[in-house]
Amino acid sequence: MGYNGITLKKSMTVGKLYSIHYFDYMNNFSFTGESHNFWEFICVDKGEAEITRGSETTILKKGEITFHPPNQYHNIKATGGIAPSLVVISFDCRSEGIYFFRDRILKVDETERNLLAEIIIEARRCFNCRLDDPYLQNMPQKKPDMFGAEQLIKIYLEHFLIHLLRRYSNPLISGDRLPEAIPQKATKRKSDIEIFRRITDYLEANLSSHITLEQIGRDNLIGRSQMQRIVKEQTSLGVIEYFANMKVTAAKEMIRSNRMNFSQIAEYLGYSSIHYFSRQFKQIAGMTPSEYASSIKAIAEGSF
Description:
It is a single chain. By secondary structure, the chain is of the alpha+beta class. It has 2 domains: 163 residues, Jelly Rolls, CATH 2.60.120; 113 residues, Homeodomain-like (Arc Repressor Mutant, subunit A, Orthogonal Bundle). The chain contains 9 helices and 11 strands.
């Protein structure tokens, strides 16, 4: 008896990809409005941004996402408060399920945040341009430096859309009821993620301090080796290296907010000197604080 193959149903299909951007704004940035005949979503990774959709204006906060359907006028600007970092992706999708996202503001979870990160990583592998220029309208392709990069972008993006839709909906869609979320058992992986989040929250609360591994472990009731393992698995970095990266990320936000000079930022983040701050910033960011400030200013002025 022969096997009968099954053609798997495609519930959410992404066609053409138009743009993938991840960039930092100054706190006074404003982008001229536009409309186009494809979908676009904006997700705030850090800070907050003022979004206009048609005639409606709203504030999008950290972790929130909104979708612009085809031909909807939209623009974006910083609020003058916390300088935002944004993920913007535009694409063609004709699937019925995509209209679930029209006129909604949703909040991404850890899985969806990781999928966005994977999309950005793969985009760097197959497009011959920087992804931090919000004025770029076309992304020239190059031969990917890793097999399957373009296909993974499509897979990750479709996974992202399906996962987000599943979390927020429970109605009938195209005759198929979406499964309700089933509580997961307290597996080791889930426990590790919870510990990692606790450590991350602790480090964020102590960004202005100089702390040691022993202090982190003592205050969070976790052994040094277990803590190092969990952070390494989640970030590929050691605990102190991860903490240094968090400090530099915070420094970038402060530079973009334009409210402190470099000496004040260094002091606020607990650096012993402006020279040590500049050296660590360049080591992690690949440029000095002054070079970073100049590049962000160029983006804000449209001369990137």
